[in-house]
Known about the structure:
The protein is elongated and about 100 Å long. A hairpin with a 5-residue loop joins β9 (103-106) and β10. The chain has 2 domains: 3-48 and 66-79 and 224-258; 86-220, no CATH class. The chain is of the alpha+beta class. A 3-stranded antiparallel β-sheet has the order 13-14-15, with no helix packed on it. A two-stranded antiparallel sheet has the order 1-6. A two-stranded antiparallel sheet has the order 2-5. The protein has helices spanning 3-27, 226-258, and strands at 37-43, 46-50, 55-57, 60-61, 66-69, 72-79, 86-88, 95-98, 103-106, 112-115, 121-122, 128-129, 146-151, 156-161, 168-172, 175-177, 185-188, 191-193, 202-204, 213-216, 218-220.
Amino acid sequence: MLKSLNTAxxxxxxxxxxxxxxxxxxxxxxxxGFKKSRAEFxxxxxxxxxxxxxxxxxxxxxxTGVQTGLGVRTGAVQKDFEIGSIKSTKNPLDLAIEGPGFxxxxxxxxxxxxxxxxxxxxxxxxxxxxxxxxxxxxxxxxPPNAAGIEISPTGQVSVAVAGAIQPQNVGQIxxxxxxxxxxxxxxxxxxxxxxxxxxxPQQGAPGQANFGAIAQGELESSNVNIVDEMVNMITAxxxxxxxxxxxxxxxxxxxxxxxxx
Length: 261
């Protein structure tokens, strides 16, 4: 049986995965703080008929061998943490990180998740939470009589209180960074969890080394480039089509062999 049938089938499966990744990127083109993904592939094992460098005669070796590849598989789907463009919203609790770093939030299971989505809200108890009700860590509570909220680039949160001359400091925003952000596990809802590949979380104040500054009243947009994704989609579609033609050609070759008299 021709190996090309299975080899081309692995190519089609790989391009299906590639298309799934591209579709997810395009679907999240308007998702705040979304980071695009890229599918990476690797070749499968080889069937070796003749080893490279094998003896081919007296005092002579073959300069090349005979190795037939058996296809491709998905090696990784990697997140690209390139910073997206910043858009202004004028909402005092909309925060963008101008540089590396993540906001830590308390998840319902008690674990701490990490996000680039800085669209925070004020909860019913005054705590600063994300759109899913996860509290920003360390917790910051806005007094009910606060007339205004001011957040400095270094993360200092101050509120104007009626009757007070000076703004009242109510907390400090901390950021977290990782040695290898691409190793984070995506949990959905714009939240990531650390893994053994990402390294341990490293906490620090905004504006310090390895941490971006806070921009109040702004949000980080998705870093998906529609034009690039459309080009990638066309490339994946043509690669899928080519692999399907390999299967058709292999089928025709098998048909010719079956018709031999």
